[in-house]
Design brief:
The protein is an alpha/beta fold. The protein has 10 helices and 12 strands. Helix 1 packs across helix 9, helix 4 packs across helix 5 and helix 4 packs across helix 9.
């Protein structure tokens, strides 16, 4: 199947009306006179298989950006995976190379870029992460890779965090890992990687006293109005890093992966870093 127009990149998932990635990526392409354009496609897990089969016949599409709830499900349709995707089992970016679908995950690097922009380092920190889904796993891997002192992951699904942490220990290198929070521990960095906060009335993933003991709170949710967590952070005057900053930290990484032959997330990050030094 061929379609008219230039090369396209689809952003797939649901809900998707609120996502900013397509606009940000299109801004980069237009600024630099590059042909690809990013379009949104509202898609749930039940329709993913049929859509993938159609895309494999559509030579106009060069790749995907993947959001909730498809980051795990898309891995079943990949021909190749980066080492990170093999470890965490989730992908948020897919490049089509001569028919071969290659999955990568830039959630962790985008998360770290947002912290760096805010002057926060993960090295030596104690981190509490709520949510062990598509983004949460990639963030956890980055926390460990950035030499945090300790990482605790909490998830409502029994056993989910513990099972993932058994795999994560392969790269832990001295980072203490736990599948539950230590109530006596003051975590310096709190990360909300759940969907709590997307809907009005959602509870906070962290108790106010946990927020009070922290230094920095990262909420990857992008919502129209302040969440319960954000209100607690504001009241307690803690440093807050929102989901938009994490998205902005990934946009150039997405572009490089989708339009070059980069083989890994690390290779992409190094290329971006070199370009920014010029």
């Amino acid at each position: 199947m061929r379609r008219s127009g230039g090369p396209r990149i689809e952003m797939i998932g649901t809900p998707i009306a609120h996502v900013r990635t397509p606009d940000l990526l299109n801004g980069l392409f237009q600024r630099d006179g590059e042909a690809p354009r990013v379009v949104k496609k509202r898609l749930g897990p039940a329709a993913l298989g049929d859509h993938v089969r159609a895309l494999r016949q559509d030579r106009g599409v060069i790749g995907l950006v993947v959001t909730t709830p498809l980051k795990t499900a898309i891995c079943d349709h990949l021909d190749r995976r980066t080492k990170l995707v093999a470890l965490v089992g989730t992908a948020n970016c897919v490049r089509f190379d001569e028919g071969a679908w290659i999955g990568a995950n830039f959630d962790g690097l985008g998360f770290e870029a947002a912290l760096t922009e805010a002057g926060v380092s993960l090295a030596g920190k104690h981190v509490l992460l709520a949510g062990c889904g598509g983004a949460g796993k990639a963030i956890a891997a980055r926390v460990v890779g950035a030499q945090a002192a300790a990482l605790a992951i909490e998830d409502n699904e029994a056993g989910k965090a513990a099972g993932f942490l058994r795999r994560l220990r392969r790269i832990a290198k001295g980072c203490e890992l736990s599948a539950c929070a230590d109530e006596g521990q003051g975590y310096q960095i709190l990360v909300n990687a759940t969907t709590l906060g997307m809907r009005q009335g959602d509870a906070s993933p962290f108790a106010p006293e946990t927020v009070a003991r922290s230094e920095t709170v990262v909420d990857i949710v992008i919502a129209d109005s302040p969440s319960c967590l954000q209100r607690d952070v504001r009241k307690l005057r803690k440093r807050f890093i929102g989901g938009t900053a994490m998205v902005q930290g990934q946009v150039e990484l997405f572009r490089r992966f989708l339009t070059t032959a980069a083989a890994s997330e690390t290779a992409v990050a190094r290329a971006v870093e070199r370009s920014q030094r010029r």
